[in-house]
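In response to reviewer comment 3 from the previous cycle, which asked for concrete evidence that the modeling workflow produces usable outputs, we include below a single protein chain processed end to end. The sequence was submitted unchanged, and the resulting structure tokens are shown without manual editing.
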Amino acid sequence: MPYSVDRVRQALLAAGHPDTIAQFAEGTHTVAEAAASVGCSEAQIAKSIIFRAGETPVLVVASGANRIDRAKVGVVLGRKIERADPAWVQDVTGFAVGGVAPVGHLAPALILIDEDLLALDPVWAAAGSPTHAFRTSPKELVRVTGGTVADVKA
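The workflow returned the following structure tokens.
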């Protein structure tokens, strides 16, 4: 099992969340693949997108059905938000794009949770690799990440 998946497992357990990580041979690299693999709607995929505010990582956990509005993210955080290239994402989070989890990052991030996720239960999030995901509730996702719920959709 990849070290990154173990980091997610340890972060979940440390937060008092059960180990609900599952591996999916079909992969969970894209929202469509993840939804098909776990058997849920695309909206129920809690996708983790990393942006940057200078050298600070910004994690937005959004419903798989939504696009993220960077300007809204910037307003909520009071910072200029920029795209992050895949190498930078891997360096600061310890996760490759397609497997970025909402917990277990190498560096602390500013975290926003898409308010649309709150209406969905359960939700599935990446667990550190493109073939691992974990099941949770929106309430638990907010709790374990310490994220701020916000309107971030385009």
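The CA atoms of residues 6 and 128 lie 8 Å apart. We consider this sufficient to address the reviewer's concern, and the full set will be provided in the supplementary archive.
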